What we know:
This protein is 48% helix and 13% strand. By secondary structure, the protein is α/β, with parallel strands linked by helices. The longest helix is centred in the last third of the chain and has 23 residues.
Amino acid sequence: MPIATPEQYAEMLDTAKAKGFAFPAFNVSSSQTLNAVLQGLTEAGSDGIIQVTTGGADYFAGHTVKARATGALAFAKFAHEVAKSYPITVALHTDHCPKPALADFVFPLLEASEEAVKAGGNPIFQSHMWDGSAVPLTENLEIAKEILPRMKAIHAILEVEIGVVGGEEDGVKHEGSNEALYTTLEDAISTVEALGLGEQGRYMAALTFGNVHGVYAPGNVKLRPALLKEIQDGLAAKYGTGPKPLDLVFHGGSGSTDAEIAEAVANGVVKMNIDTDTQYAFTRSIAGYMFDNYDGVLKVDGGVGNKKAYDPRAWGKVAESAMAVRVGESTRQLGSAGQSITA
């Protein structure tokens, strides 16, 4: 199916919230990892979200140049074309964009989508993240408030981060106090005061409840998914809305238990980012292939090797399928398996 239209993306998120599941959002950095996500989602019968970071976009453009907007557009064009062959619907998203990268990442992509919509088409990306977690909350929300009308005009969705996710992802690194890892109700109220509850444009909020990017040992991170319910309930009481007024995003979920993920989803998470685990699944399978076929991929003792073994397509297919398995696991963990608007 083609990439989701704005209306289809909204339907995906609305359905997830109504039915109590979340869509996995997979970071990709190559055509192979993108194809792996499409394969895994198809095998699971799940719609989903495919996203690219500044670093991933840099890599798409060519690792010897710095042209992340070009890389992101190349990713999107490739995705728009190859997704037509798969019987599921996916939305395209740009992940973590800190303040220094707005000018050469999100803003050029917004301009490209504005031109596409002006010409009668759909936005190239269905959502963009502004990551203001490294600046004071007031500045974070001021910038979000400037971006949101542009997103609304092209029928796209903004993602904001309110709080701090620890660890590091693509150069965005946070080392602060433990208190900074937990969004407060006051922070969420400030967000609603600045951005509204949809009338100024739709947005998703990555509230933090102890999340950390990357790999960490069990016990080092204290997730408090119950905090999300406290915040949702507090907002509903203050503004007189229905339950779970915010669409929430779960960042830094590697190593989380099934129970923690389920509780977060029950409290309004509709999107969960997946990166570290799929990276490992992809690379681990290549390592295994190389060990098992070392005399084929290497010209040992003056030999000729085995072209069929060292052909990048041979180990590439193995890696894509291994990553696709991990993609499928994510859909089952989040409840999106079998959930597709194209079904």
